[in-house]
Specification:
With 301 residues, this protein is mostly beta strands. The chain contains three helices and 15 strands. The strands form three sheets. Strands 1, 3, 6, 7, 8, 13, 14 and 15 form an eight-stranded mixed β-sheet that branches. Strand 11 and strand 12 form a beta hairpin. The radius of gyration is 18 Å and the shape is globular. The relative contact order is 0.25.
Length: 301
């Protein structure tokens, strides 16, 4: 029955790709993957010859992009503060880096499914900007997805814990877990050295999908170049979960979608509209051979 309902919904929505998000619009500039080393440190993103710094979002300078989605108000920047860099590329990946500072670090819930109750980073994608309830298919992730990045280094898994023990995961049925393999979702963290005033760097690349099936052969990657050229929006949202008082209990969720986005976990209408835009520092590169990566980066210095 779920499959039948999903097919009917997709037929009704076919061709209905339009801006419909909540919260402020996001501008996501092009980045050349040859210039981004995913190591959790963010040095490439902070390089003004690689990333146009005017697109960097800061909870101090642009608080409208770090609204309270759900939970209690923050006591101040020491409670939670962050910067966020986002980029797209012609390899049909979303790239990003976020550095989060938190007064109390809580990490270690036993399963990926419960990690909204610890300190982590969530990424929501609806590349076709279909909108609506995306928990209607067999995978709960066919046309829109809720992803997560955990701080799991050194965390022991408890009884009943998630056996794959992954940093990158998807909130979906188990048959969708193949999408979190490193060729599709890859993240490196710069881990905090303290559980108080803790600063974490999350750096990632994530495949964008128009449709997810049981395997890559049954799925359809999103064409970022076509979206860029058309000027259409994708659905996108970034949120941080903040647990202070008790492990497994989320005190606050801070996200780009703000207070109107509290149903993002099942409804893609609650994502932001995000536009794939030019990088004013260099042109869009369709493909770069591995042997030329160093030369390309050196030419921008």
């Amino acid at each position: 029955m779920k499959s039948t309902i999903f097919v009917l919904v997709m037929c009704v929505l076919a061709g209905a790709v339009y801006a419909q998000g909540t919260g402020p619009d996001l501008d996501v500039p092009y980045v050349n993957p040859a210039l981004i080393t995913i190591d959790g440190l963010g040095t490439d993103w902070e390089d003004p010859t690689v990333y146009p710094q005017e697109y960097m979002l800061s909870s101090t300078d642009a608080p409208e992009y770090f609204g309270i989605v759900t939970g209690s108000e923050l006591s101040g920047p020491e409670d939670f503060s962050a910067v966020l860099y986002l980029g797209w590329s012609t390899d049909n990946m979303l790239y990003g880096y976020s550095r989060v500072t938190d007064d109390i670090l809580q990490v270690g819930v036993p399963t990926n499914g419960a990690c909204w109750g610890e300190d982590d980073l969530e990424i929501m994608t609806d590349a076709g900007n279909i909108g609506g309830d995306y928990r209607v298919g067999d995978l709960d992730a066919e046309f829109a997805q809720q992803w997560g990045i955990r701080q799991k280094a050194g965390v022991a898994m408890g009884p009943g814990g998630n056996e794959d023990d992954t940093v990158c995961h998807i909130w979906a049925e188990a048959d969708a877990a193949w999408t979190t393999g490193p060729e599709f979702f890859y993240a490196v963290l710069d881990y905090p050295t303290s559980t108080t005033a803790a600063t974490t760097g999350y750096e990632f690349k994530l495949a964008l999908w128009d449709e997810i099936g049981l395997s890559v052969g049954e799925s359809q990657r999103h064409d970022c170049m076509a979206t860029y050229e058309s000027g259409a929006a994708i659905g996108l949202g970034i949120a941080g979960d903040d647990s202070d008082a008790e492990m497994g209990t989320r005190d606050t969720q801070i996200g780009t979608m703000g207070g109107d986005g509290s149903s993002f976990w099942n409804n893609a209408d609650h994502f932001n509209d995000a536009y794939l835009v030019d990088n004013p520092l260099y042109g869009v590169v369709v493909a770069v051979e591995a042997s030329s990566w160093g030369a390309v980066k050196a030419s921008l210095k």
